[in-house]
Amino acid sequence: MTRGLVFDVRRYSVHDGPGIRTAVFLKGCPLGCWWCHNPESQGRAPFVHYDAARCIRCAACVEACPHGALAIGAMGVHRDRALCQDEGACVAACPAEAQRVVGEWYTPSQLLEEIEKDQLFFDESGGGATFSGGEPLLQWEFLLEVLEGCGAWGIHRTVDTTGFTSTEVLLRVAQRTDLFLYDIKTMNPILHREVTGVSLAPILQNLDVLLHSKARVRIRIPLVPGVTDGDGLESIAAWLSSRPDPEGIDLLPYHSAAEGKHRRFGLPWRMADASSIPAERVEELAARIEHHGYQVTIGG
Q1: Chain-centre distance of CA 111, in angstroms?
Q2: 201-212 vs 167-174: helix axis angle to the nearest 10?
Q3: 3-state class percentages of the chain: helix first, strand second, coil last, to nearest 5
Q4: Which CATH architecture has domain 4-43+108-298?
Q5: Is 151 helix (H, G, I), strand (E, B) or coil?
Q6: Distances, alpha carbon 185 to alpha carbons 189, 286, 287, in Å
Q7: First and final CA of the chain: distance in angstroms?
Q8: Where are the domains of the chain?
């Protein structure tokens, strides 16, 4: 039986495609972007996360752990990752829900049932379901079944992707997708590998194929200080100019809201010297892209 690992289902989303949408976040990502807003998505397995702000220091989770992986101290509960098996005994024991599992397995039918609950909102707003992550194409077999089910119910389907997959998989998914939100970080291959951990080449190759296949595509560019907040945008526009036009370009201004998440999940925060881009600078950058003839939206 096909199963997919989901770490969030977010209802009433208005920034992940047209209309009111249900955004499904699939777990696992081949990229490790320094500024990632969903760092909990990067691993490909469920794990138990501790929220110190919810903890009442009762030590019930410490007593429940069969592996002795937990200990309580002045800062709350400490987890020894070398001992923890992420089995969830601490989650069941915690009365304050300070321990929780990140990542839940769904069958296609189970996920479709969740999505279908919002069909009234889709019908009234022209919305639908958006599949994001992480990188949803990592779980492409599961994704294909869910996309097919959405299509049978007349639900609009959007896939938000980094494009880092095989061309064969991308084209198979494209047959069941109404709109792609396609991320481009930078056109500098050395910088791209440094800040994401993967090669730029297959991402651009797949985007080229997707645009020439006449798929509906919106380009999404995070405005990250030192990465795409300057001449990098001009390079992206120049690359796009020799290809079929996308439906539009979304500029996503950088902010440091993800810093707290990175620290909570024990991940390094490598954007310590970056600051939010002023609104007037964002408008200036949008105008530069519009000058090339593209329809630009700030914030998606």
Answers
A1: 17
A2: 30
A3: 35, 20, 45
A4: Alpha-Beta Barrel (3.20)
A5: helix
A6: 10, 15, 19
A7: 35
A8: 4-43+108-298, 47-102
Establish how many alpha carbons lie within 13 A of residue 108's alpha carbon, considering only the half-sphere containing its beta carbon.
Answer: 14
CATH code for residues 47-102: 3.30.70.20
Q: Which tens digit of pLDDT belongs to each residue from 238-293? A: 999 999 999 999 999 888 878 888 877 778 888 888 888 888 989 999 999 999 99
Angle formed at CA 210 by CA 108 and CA 229, multiple of 5 degrees: 100
pLDDT band at 142; cut points 50, 70, 90: very high
Cα–Cα distances in angstroms (integers) from residue 158 to residues 21, 26, 41, 50, in the given order: 9, 13, 19, 32
Find out whether 38 and 133 touch, Cβ atoms under 8 Å: yes
With tokens 């039918």, the residue in question is 109
Shortest CA distance to 101 belongs to which of 46, 142, 181, 158?
Answer: 46
d(CA 177, CA 175): 6
User: Is 209 in contact with 190 (CB distance < 8 Å)?
Assistant: no
Distance of alpha carbon 206 from alpha carbon 247, whole angstroms = 17
75 versus 208: the higher-pLDDT residue is 208
- In the numeric block, which tokens belong to residue 63? 């007593």
* Location of structure tokens 């902010």: 255
